[in-house]
Write a structure and sequence with these properties.
Blueprint: H1 20-44, H2 52-73, H3 110-131, H4 135-181
C-alpha cells in the first residue's frame, strides 16, 4: 500500500484533457483572427498585404524577439543573480556563404608556421648536404675517400698476388716441361 493511504501520490496535478471540439474551435478562432489582420493591413495599404509570407516572417520575427527576451530573463544558475559584462568576450557571429573569403590569405597558427619552417630548413640542409657544403657531408666524403683508397690498395695487392701466382704457375710449368724434355 502506498504511503499516505491513497492510490495517487501527492505529486502531480489532476489531468485536464482538451476535447477535439475545443481544439477545432481554437483553430477556427486563430484562422478568423489572421483573416481580420489581413483585412486591416489591406485597408491601411501596408504594402505587404498581397504577400502572406512577408506577414508570416514579420510575425515570426516578433515571436523570435520575444523568445530572445525570454532567454535573457531565464538565465540559469548564478547568471540571473550576477550581471557581468565582459568586454573581452566576443559574441559568436555567423557568416553567410557570400561573406566568406576563401581566396584571401589564410593566417596560420603558430604550430603550422613552425612546422612549415622546420620543413623548409630540412630541405635547405639536404640541398647543402648533397652539394657537400655541410660538415657532415665533408666528413662523409673524407670517409668515402679513405675507404676508396683502402679498396684500391686491396685490389692492387690482389692483382700482384694473382700475377705472382700466375708467374709461379708459368715458371712451374716450364720447369716441368724442361724436366720432361731431358
Amino acid at each position: 500500500m502506498p504511503k499516505g493511504g491513497r492510490k495517487g501520490g501527492h505529486k502531480g496535478r489532476a489531468r485536464q484533457y482538451t476535447s477535439p471540439e475545443e481544439i477545432d474551435a481554437q483553430l477556427q478562432a486563430e484562422k478568423q483572427k489572421a483573416r481580420e489582420e489581413e483585412e486591416q493591413s489591406e485597408e491601411l495599404g501596408d504594402g505587404a498585404a498581397g504577400d502572406p509570407k512577408k506577414e508570416k516572417k514579420s510575425l515570426d520575427s516578433d515571436e523570435s524577439d520575444e523568445d530572445d527576451d525570454d532567454y535573457q530573463q531565464k538565465r540559469k544558475g548564478v547568471e540571473g543573480l550576477i550581471d557581468i559584462e565582459n568586454p573581452n568576450r566576443i559574441g559568436q557571429t555567423t557568416k553567410k556563404v557570400t561573406q566568406l573569403d576563401l581566396d584571401g590569405p589564410k593566417e596560420l597558427s603558430r604550430r603550422e608556421r613552425e612546422e612549415i619552417e622546420k620543413q623548409k630548413a630540412k630541405e635547405r640542409y639536404m640541398k647543402m648536404h648533397l652539394a657537400g657544403k655541410t660538415e657532415q657531408a665533408k666528413a662523409d666524403l673524407a670517409r668515402l675517400a679513405i675507404i676508396r683508397k683502402q679498396r684500391e690498395e686491396a685490389a692492387r695487392k690482389k692483382e700482384e698476388e694473382r700475377k705472382a701466382k700466375d708467374d709461379a704457375t708459368v715458371s712451374g710449368k716450364r720447369m716441368q716441361s724442361l724436366s720432361l724434355n731431358k
